[in-house]
Amino acid sequence: MTTTGPDIVELDRIAVLESLRVVEPAREADWERDTPCAGWTLRRLVAHMTAQHYGFAAAARGAGHEEAYWREPEDMSDPGRTYRGAATTVLAAFAEPGVGEREFVLPELGVAVPGRLAVGFHFIDYVVHAWDVAATLGAGLDLPGHVLDAGLAVARRVPTDPAGRGAGFAFAPALDVPAGSEPLEEALRLLGRDPKKWPLPS
Predict the structure, then answer these.
(1) Is residue 172 included in any domain, yes or no?
(2) Which of 46, 75, 123, 181 is 20 to 30 A from residue 145's alpha carbon, by CA?
């Protein structure tokens, strides 16, 4: 799972910053809204996003095997602030020299993977999760074309085996992709999201 063009760490940074931008406007009444992640409220989605940031930051620094880093926060009374802290942490970890050449232990996979590959996993997660939040709030998504193209390239390489999709896994089963789909729509559908059910503002 590789990308071409801009460095994967820079692509990831853009996606994470966009996720921060779309989370920022959420207000108290928004946190219990349903999201494109079936069964998850926005509060639960942001708790998951927070845990993943801390987990990947720990993995970048050689502590990915420690399960505590991957747990969702118990206190989600101020989701926006909690999420901001997590995003800042992972961006700092990924910005360290040589992160792409390190090995990341990712408990979900049960193996260590090259840093560049691990950052690619994180990157596509935050393209998708930024969209999840924007769709939940009825907000626009502002990701440059080259980021969406890179996200699609990664999404096309995510295994589609039904045994690894669905409840308990990172992505739902892949959906059919209509001919002529834009890169974001294709990536979302490949990863089990239906943008027609959760349209963003034009």
Answers:
(1) no
(2) 46
Give the total number of structural domains in the chain: 1
The overall pTM is greater than 0.90? yes
Residue 184 within a domain: no
Residue 11: name the closest of 134, 122, 130, 159 by CA: 122
**CATH number assigned to the domain comprising residue 17:** 1.20.120.450
User: pLDDT tens, position by position, for the chain (202 residues)?
Assistant: 444 345 999 999 999 999 999 999 999 999 999 999 989 999 999 999 999 999 999 999 999 999 999 999 999 999 999 999 999 999 999 999 999 999 999 998 888 999 999 999 999 999 999 999 999 999 999 999 999 999 999 999 987 766 555 555 567 788 999 999 999 999 999 999 999 999 999 7
Question: Domain for residue 47, yes or no?
Answer: yes
Token pair recorded at residue 192: 């089990």
Angle in degrees, 0-180, between the axes of helices 42-60 and 79-94, rounded to the nearest 10: 20
Domain that holds residue 154: 8-160
